[in-house]
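Can't paste images in this forum, so I'm doing it all in text. The chain is below; anyone willing to post the predicted C-alpha cells underneath?
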Amino acid sequence: MTILGENDRLPQGSTVATIGMFDGVHLGHATLVDFLKRQAAAAGKQSLVITFKHHPRQVLHPDEPFHLIMPCNDRLRHLETLGPDLLLPLEFTRELASLDSSQFIELLRDRYGVAELVAGYNHRFGHKRGETFGDYCRHGERLGVKVVKAPEYLGKYAPVSSTIVRGLIAAGRVVDAMHCMGRPHVIAGKVVHGFHNGRGLGFPTANVGKMDPDVLMPHNGAYAVLAHVHGQQLQGMANIGRRPTLDNGDQLSIEVNLFDFDEDIYGEDISLEFISFLRLEFKMCGLDELKQQLTLDRDNAKRILKEYLNNR
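Text version of the structure:
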C-alpha cells in the first residue's frame, strides 16, 4: 500500500475511491473498504481510501469539545491493514468545506484520478447536507464519474457507526465498543509520577499521563486492561477517576495496576487496551474497604482477561 501526499496527482481515470473520516476503523468501515477493493479490481483500477487528518467538527467548531476514538496515525495504521492500494490523508480546511458535492467530485476526478466514487452507506459530503445519493449520481454522471453506494454492514453487531462507538466508549461500554470495532479501545501515554498511594495498599500503580487530548476517554471507573510497555503485553486493572476515597482532589487520573510486574517504567511509553468494565468509581468508608474492593477487582479482572485471551 502507498500513502499519498496532498500534493500528489494521479493519472486521470486511474482510481476507484471512497472518502470519510473512518474514526475507529470499525466493522462498517471494513465492509466499505472490502467493497471498494472489489469494485476497483473489477474495473482494473487502483483502490483509493481518502481520509481526513482532523475531524471536520474540530476545524469548523474549534471551541466545541470533541474527542476522537483514535489519533490519526493509529487510524492510518488500521486502514492500512484493510489493504487498499492507496491511502490519502487530507487536511480538512474551511475551503474544502465550502465546496458542494459537485465541486468535490470534480476535485477528486481532476487531482486524484477518480473514475468511480464509492459512497458509504449513510455518508454525506459537500456543504449542501440536504442532497441525496441520487444527487451525487447525477453530478457524477455529468462529470464522468460513476457513483455507487457501498452495502450496509449487516453483521452481528449492526448497526455500527463512529458516533455509536463514541457513545459506547463514553458510557464505559468498552465490550460493546470492542465488538463494533473488532478490537479494544486504546489510550496511550507515558508513565508519570503520581500520588504513590497504591503501593502502600499493596496495589502499586503506574500513572498514565501525557496522553493525546483529542482521544476519547472511557467513563470514570475500573476496567480490566491489557497494557503494552517495554515490548511486553501485561495484564492489569486500570482506574479512571479522581480517587474519592483517598481525597486526592479533583484532578482526573488514570492508574493501572499491572499484575505480577514490579519494574521501574517511569517515563516509558504505555498503551492500554480496555477489555471490560469492572465497576463505577465510588467513595468507600476507608482504606480497609478500599483494599477489599481492589482485591475483588483484581480477581474479576484476572478472570475476565484469562477468558478473553483464551478466546480471541
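The chain has two domains: 2-149, 184-311. DSSP finds nine helices and twelve strands in the chain.
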